[in-house]
TrEMBL record:
Residue stretches making up the ABC transporter domain: 1-248
Keywords (A to Z) from UniProt: ATP-binding, Nucleotide-binding, Translocase, Transport
InterPro entries reported in the protein's UniProt record: ABC_transporter-like_ATP-bd (IPR003439), P-loop_NTPase (IPR027417)
Residue ranges of coiled coil: none
Lineage: Bacteria, Pseudomonadati, Pseudomonadota, Gammaproteobacteria, Alteromonadales
GO molecular function: ATP binding; ATP hydrolysis activity
Name of the protein described by the UniProt record: ATP-binding cassette domain-containing protein
Pfam family, any one: ABC_tran
Function, as annotated: Part of the ABC transporter complex HmuTUV involved in hemin import. Responsible for energy coupling to the transport system.
Length: 267
């Protein structure tokens, strides 16, 4: 039987960026990583994805050391959305996505008319990301939010067969950046759907109220150290997030305590 933990970090250190990070992330969980600018979130994502090697410690996927998993095998089960992505040359969205798709399973063929791109993003992705309408546009002519939706589609398509099996590890560094409020919500709902299928999703975010609503568990990263990690409700307290951001938060209870929201504590 497979071990429950899909992704583990043991005593991870990256010099001058973070230290002694220990994590055990299970399949079917949605983790949010929160912390100030420069806290080490992107550096941690780089190491968890295998892009950067830790100075100390191990990253373990499904009981296997990441260093023992080939790059090609990683690419089929682990998606990593980096905070920035730049292309040195011009590509259409469909050309970009075509590099990442599994031809046999991912895109349906479009036949006519010939001016329409010959690929389509699967409906469940397109409903959240509205990428099919952008397929014939040059990537570098899209708005920031449109590009971000394409990049979310790109990394999910890379591991789409694993996602269907509930076997994917989805690492998303600030996936909501540049998205308007409606797209932020539709992406978070899409992520929830993927998590319910058994996939593990780990994302960084700067909005504690979105974490209150959408995270199962959180990692609070403070100056490269784990301030706290665990269940959303236990971790996201006014004192916890005030300490994390050095900003005065108060937690309001709304609708007969059904909903909660953080506000700035009045003076
Ligand atoms: N390539 C690098 N080489 C050396 N130091 C780096 C490098 N990238 C980032 N840093 C430093 O490491 C620290 C952590 O940066 P990181 O990008 O991981 O923070 P972050 O939590 O993702 O911040 P943000 O919320 O601003 O995206 C910062 O002090 C940053 O200046």
């Amino acid at each position: 039987m497979k071990p429950t933990a899909m992704l583990q970090a043991r005593k991870l250190c990256l010099h001058n960026r973070f230290e002694d990070i220990n994590l055990s992330l299970n399949r079917g969980e949605c983790w949010h990583v929160l912390g100030q600018n420069g806290a080490g979130k992107s550096s941690l994502f780089d190491v968890l994805s295998g892009l950067t090697e830790a100075n100390v410690g191990d990253v373990i996927y499904d009981g296997r050391a990441l260093s023992d998993i080939s790059i090609s095998e990683r690419a089929t089960t682990r998606a990593y959305l980096q905070q920035t992505y730049s292309l040195a040359f011009s590509l259409s969205v469909s050309e970009l996505l075509s590099f990442y798709l599994d031809q046999s399973t991912l895109f349906q063929q479009h036949t006519t008319p010939s001016s329409i791109p010959d690929i389509l993003v699967p409906t469940e992705l397109d409903e959240a990301l509205h990428v099919n309408a952008l397929l014939d546009r040059p990537l570098n002519e899209l708005s920031g939010g449109e590009q971000q939706r394409v990049h979310i589609a790109r990394v999910l398509l890379q591991v789409w067969p694993a996602i269907q099996q509930g076997e994917a590890i989805l690492l998303m560094d600030e996936p909501l950046q540049n998205l308007d409020i409606a797209f932020q919500e539709s992406v978070l709902i899409l992520f929830k759907t993927l998590v319910v299928m058994g996939n593990l999703l780990v994302m960084s975010v700067h909005d504690v109220n979105l974490s209150l609503r959408f995270a199962d568990k959180v990692l609070l990263l403070k100056q490269g150290k784990c301030q706290a990690s665990g269940e959303n409700k236990a971790m996201l307290t006014a004192s916890g997030v005030t300490e994390l951001y050095e900003y005065p938060f108060e937690l309001l209870q709304l609708n007969n305590n059904i909903e909660k929201t953080f506000i700035r504590r009045p003076n």
